[in-house]
Amino acid sequence: MKRYSVFAIAREAMRHHTGWERAWRSPEPKKQYDVVIVGAGGHGLATAYYLGKNFGITNVAVIEKGWLGGGNTGRNTTIIRSNYLQDPSAAIYEKARSLYETLSQDLNYNVMFSPRGLLMLAQTHHEVRGYLRTVHANALQGVATEWIEPARVKELVPIINIDGPRYPVLGALYQARGGTARHDAVAWGYARACSAMGMDIIQQCEVKGVRSEGGAVTGVDTTKGFIGTKKLGIVVAGHSGQVADMAGFRLPVEAVALQALVSEPIKPCMDVVVMANTVHGYMSQSDKGEMVIGGGTDGFNNFTQRGSFHHIEETLRALIETFPMISRLKMLRQWGGIVDMTGDRSPIISKTPLGNCFINCGWGTGGFKAIPGSGWAMAELMAKGEPGALAKDFSMWRFKEGQFIDESVAAGVAH
Amino acid sequence: MSTRLAKGGRLIDRTATQEFSFNGKRLKGFKGDTLAAALLANDQMLVGRSFKYHRPRGIVAAGPEEPNALVNLGRGGRFEPNQRVTTTELFEGLEAKSQNHWPSLEFDVGVVNNYVARFLPAGFYYKTFIHPRPFWKHVFEPIIRQSAGLGAAPKDRDADRYEQAYAFCDLLVVGGGIAGLQAALVAGRAGARVILLEQTAHFGGRAVVDGEVIDGKPADAFVTAALAELGGMANVTVKARTMGAGVYDHGYVLADEKVADHTPGDGRPKHRLWRIRAGKILTATGAIERPLSFAGNDIPGVMLAASVRDYVVNFAVSPADRTVVVTNNDDAYRTAIALKEAGLAVPAIIDARSNVTGELPARARSLGIRIEAGRGVAKVLGGKRVTGVSICLQAGEGAVIDEIACDAVAMSGGWSPVVHLWSHCGGKLNWDTTNAHFRPDAARPPLNHDGGAMVYAAGIANGAMTTAAVLADADAQAQAAVTALGMAPKPAELPYAAPVVEGAMEAVWIMPQGATAPLKSKMWLDYQNDVKVSDVQLAAREGYESVEHTKRYTTLGMATDQGKLSNINGLAVLAGALNEDIPQVGTTTFRPPYTPVTLGALAGEARGEIFQPLRRTPMHAWHEKNGAYMEPVGLWRRPYTFPRTGETHEQAVHREVLNTREKLGLLDASTLGKIIVKGPDAGRFLDMLYTGVMSTLPIGKCRYGLMCNEQGFLSDDGVVARIDEETWLCHTTSGGADRIHAWMEDWLQCEWWDWKVYTANVTEQYAQVAVVGPNARKLLEKLGGMDVSKEALPFMQWADGTLGGFPVRVYRISFSGELSYEIAVPASHGAAFWEACHKAGAEFGAMPYGTEALHIMRAEKGFIMIGDETDGTVIPQDLNLDWAISKKKDDFLGKRGQQRNHLASPDRWKLVGFEALDGSVIPDGAYVVDSGVNGNGQRNVQGRITSTYFSPTLKKGIAMGLLKHGPKRMGEVVEFGTFKNGVQGTLKARVVDPVFFDKDGEKQNV
Amino acid sequence: MLVLECPYCGVKAEETELSPGYEAHLKRFGPGSSDEEFESYMFARKNPKGVHFERWRHVYGCGKWFLAARCTATLEVFGTYPAQSSEPPADLVAKIKAKRPDWKGYK
């Protein structure tokens, strides 16, 4: 792999950029691999990357029915934070956040991680108490967050209306090293690094069946033929239920549509990410200048990647109330993704009833921020066959025990 | 130069001059102009700068596809960035400023990017700015951000208002060209309810500009007659200036009506957002002309051919004295002819096709226009304005044959049907090789709720390329839609248009075909985002092969026009680079809206006070008048406290607590949920709902109850009163009333549907006043009426009667530990009763108190609060509420859930009280630390605070919380982790009984 | 933006009048059931990409719960019926089978 740098760009500029090599190879599948990952989204690719990097396992194929990074990795609002309440969540999201800090250097690919700061507004006294609890929990979890007063909120976000007649801002939970990253680049950077380690990323290859023998997986049938493997990782977000069906087990997961939208680009006016959970809206400004806005989820199973429009209206009402100056901006594009929601809205990183078959799913509305940590934990689980500290609480059997990881405790929504 | 012609102009009124300004220059236009037309009439071709290289940008188009000509419009509360000049109607006093440059439009420092463009290819930022690490956040990103964006950020609150409206129809026709009009006529005559939308202020589309002849008359006559006929039909609504923005499932269409954009400040709403529910949708949305990719095709003065004739014909604006036409099809010859007929020079038509035979070229030849067949543009000459073109063989590599001086280039690469609305809900497309475009595949339409076709495409939007074909197709599609709606189209003669013999177009994606790398790096695909042919080819070379990868890697089609001009050209270039067919490469996903919609319109009138519905108790006005500081509780607003002059909120709350404990406090408890449960099976039902037994509750008595969800977690609590043999009244928390009522209905309708029970949520039917404190009885006795003595109305009983002449139901219940009556009156009496209590209570020291005093008093008594002691993970057993859980019942909601391992564990955290050793208030949300760390290096914890207050009664901090094995650890000293102002610390506290005040309950039992 | 016809009041109700309730025909497991049964009742929801039976409440209308058969991939609605049904009505099942020959059927 030729390294990317400003010198490489200068060199290539002299020959009209004809010398750049492919970011990742596009091979035909081999007959047999040590590990097959289904799903070349951020989580699947990160799993493969850390299998190679942390465990030296590189005889790996990542197979993808569409194009890599084309699911929720490429259609989220790119927020990165780790200010979670419950220990297992805080651990994995903080692991992810800290890996994001150096990901561009690790991958030699600029993923534009921008720890510009993230605010969660408290707009009721109940919310104030909830966030104070989070601040205390985070301090003991090693997650740097703080409680800030309204005047400081206004200083950080000059365009905010802190004296709204209905829900004045009473303060905020602030994570100074939360922020955003360029979502596509995360998938592309991992893909390039995996390919450079000799792993095969096979796009346009849909899994049609999972084969097993004696209770353990032996391979997958795909649109490009049978691919044998010693271990199988299922990392397919919204379609987890379908692939789990093929592997012969049912997941406590339902697929619903989550929406987002962007405005036309304007000159920079907001440097931090703001989430307002009482009124259900969150917003950041991309490096291109678009206001990136997250919407709500529908309450019904949906695989169309389209949500119901009234959620967009509700979100915008909340945001115009919070940021009155956006009223005359225009919605450029709205879209939806399919998110997989578990019974406690926390993810699953787990062994499954099928031997040597592992699952990573259920990230719901909050998966992007977890990608490096999720891949790290999943790689450890797949390499060792047993979950490490990061993954152990995210077992798919926790529901039977009633041992939930419930984040809705702290905030109405978990984005 | 561009200028106003002496005569002509379909849409302008030369008698009405309108003054406007551009970058501070005072300019004049005519009523009926678009801002684009008026700018061109004033020779203002240069209107902006591109996103990345800050290259000069001129007006390219005449409609919503315009990628370049975006301005900052207006000022103050009516300032609007990124306003498209081609769709902005001119009005008197309009102020526009160009965007994305510094210090000025003519001299932009950012253009330095242009000179280093070869170092900034697609995706360059992914490959650089990687080291050193802190530089991205502190150096590189701030620079990139400063150069980002287009228009300026608005500063002020929006001065305008917006409306939202609903409409319903059988057939929604989107597009008011001849196809849309014909379709509306067919459906209207058949009796269907029709809505016809046109995004501009004018009907007729291209046909009226191009001088088409229908039924022997100019197309204008057809349009006028059609509008007249439609106007006479009661079942047809015709709306101009209304853009069909998005098609959503089950026939839901969003349309944006620009009501007052052209008359700002006249008192009307700026926009009206229509939410239309249509039986079927017919898209007659026309087509968009494609640019051609030749070197320098972004220099101001290079325009779309049909747009050039729009300016000439509609506005009598000549974009240039000498215009060279570049084309791969016959349609662009209409532009040459229109220019010539307007007296302007057309030095040449450069036609990439070697064989040029149609009727239109013949007419052009007869007008003396030079036609260069088989040729292409090697390069456009000029910087901020076109000065000429050099021509070459289309089949070659770009060797210059000739140079032609001109000041505009009119280009046409063919037409792409507008398929956006067809595609929003998954309608599929076919590649049409003849016309080199994607058009709707009628066999794979977007589906409606019944599985049938939801959308029909008609006219040129469906790939019908001539007037005759457009009318025939519109007629046929409308008939099909009407028939599918179960109605019968009326027989009528199809309007006649003479067939025109046009030569076949020839797909041309790069000009010349064998262009060298330096030329390709000057061929713009996306003008706004500066994406060139070379960028797309680079993306393909680097493996970004999916059309979505290419789009995202190069930002092709991600500008404010969402690729209306660039997408097809871009994916054709991509297909070429990949050696694949265009349909194999496919398109990116079409998403709403068709053109950007103002956020204010999407939010509608819900702002400020009416941002959400507001629920008011009957005493709400009194609270406001008496200076209450309110807090939101669901959609209610409740007084948090009633501060007096000079008091802080904290002082006010403490006063309220002490006054209530010592004298008399009055609380507006009207928001408390009240649900009547009635019927022969009501007792049995409540026994399933509550953890305790409610069926045995004697008439006239009250009982505290807990409700859990099926998981076993505590969900709500409240006092239940047995009204009569078959009737119970269940109190819920203020926030829980609607949720619990829905919960009851869910179980009654879906699980125990044979049980005979009715429920009614009567929360708003009653006002409720808590009369609390040692003087409570005195107040009621003074009001006079029913017997409220200890004997007549003991604790946990209720009675009906009158007080002070008001019909009341009095509950003897207490959430403060004081002698307390909660008095319900019909809501209409609420305000009067409340005032009567204050009046009569004055001599007993009555004061209102708010929610915070309520919270403190209940905490002093160790009473739990849903939402404080519970958070969705807490079971009643955790709160030592086992006494309220029946051991005898076989089943209740939550019982099975509570039997699971984790919930039945003896190691759960349980409710205790905490007192800081130093008497301070333990910080809200603090955790009790344990020794060591867990596997993830997080500090182990063993408990946490759930409620913490300064008790004015006890003059010290008190707290409730959960602690592992808590009740067994009374007297033990534990350590809290504290965190204040960024400093971590610890605080020692003693584990105590959570009942801090009046442990034996003597105060309430008097 | 779905439209579902309420089988009680006959109103073609828009989604904003309705409140969703996920999978229909769940069998409740209470005390005495095994951990597996209870887990399956609480969490193991059907999540098909295709024909799905689900609960809706006409909350801003007549207030009644009803059930709907809907395709989660196309949002086609095959029919609605009262909540007081222990399984989908036979005529509805037949209608779905006719429209979707590949459908494996309810259960």
TrEMBL record, chain A:
Keyword Nucleus attributed: no
Catalyzed reaction equations: sarcosine + (6S)-5,6,7,8-tetrahydrofolate + O2 = (6R)-5,10-methylene-5,6,7,8-tetrahydrofolate + glycine + H2O2; sarcosine + O2 + H2O = formaldehyde + glycine + H2O2
PROSITE patterns: RHODANESE_3
Record family assignment: Belongs to the SoxB family.
Entry GO terms, CC: cytoplasm
Cofactor requirement: FAD; FMN
Keywords: Cytoplasm, FAD, Flavoprotein, FMN, Nucleotide-binding, Oxidoreductase
Residue ranges occupied by any Rhodanese domain in the UniProt entry: 35-79
Molecular function in Gene Ontology: nucleotide binding; sarcosine oxidase activity
Coiled-coil region list: none
Subcellular location: Cytoplasm
EC number, as in UniProt: 1.5.3.24
SUPFAM superfamilies named in the record: FAD/NAD(P)-binding domain
Protein name, as recorded: Sarcosine oxidase subunit beta
Source organism (scientific name): Paragemmobacter straminiformis
GO annotation (BP), single: tetrahydrofolate metabolic process
UniProtKB/TrEMBL annotation, chain B:
Keywords, comma-separated and alphabetical: Oxidoreductase
Similarity field: Belongs to the GcvT family.
Protein's name in the database: Sarcosine oxidase subunit alpha family protein
Ranges where the SoxA A3 domain occurs: 520-604
Residue ranges constituting the GCVT N-terminal domain according to the UniProt record: 619-889
PANTHER family listed in its UniProt record: AMINOMETHYLTRANSFERASE, AMINOMETHYLTRANSFERASE, MITOCHONDRIAL
Superkingdom of origin: Bacteria
Ranges for domain Aminomethyltransferase C-terminal: 910-998
Domain FAD/NAD(P)-binding per the UniProt entry, residue ranges: 170-423
GO terms of molecular function: sarcosine oxidase activity
InterPro entries, per database record: 2Fe-2S-bd_N, FAD/NAD-bd_sf, FAD/NAD-binding_dom, GcvT/YgfZ/DmdA, GcvT/YgfZ_C, GcvT_C, GCVT_N, Sarcosine_oxidase_asu
Gene Ontology terms: biological process: tetrahydrofolate metabolic process
Pfam families, alphabetized: Fer2_4 (PF13510), GCV_T (PF01571), GCV_T_C (PF08669), Pyr_redox_2 (PF07992), SO_alpha_A3 (PF17806)
Automatic annotation (TrEMBL), chain C:
Residues that span the membrane, as ranges: none
Molecular-function annotations in GO: sarcosine oxidase activity
GO biological process per UniProt: tetrahydrofolate metabolic process
A matching Pfam family: SoxD
Protein's recorded name: Sarcosine oxidase subunit delta
Organism: Paragemmobacter straminiformis
Lineage: Bacteria, Pseudomonadati, Pseudomonadota, Alphaproteobacteria, Rhodobacterales
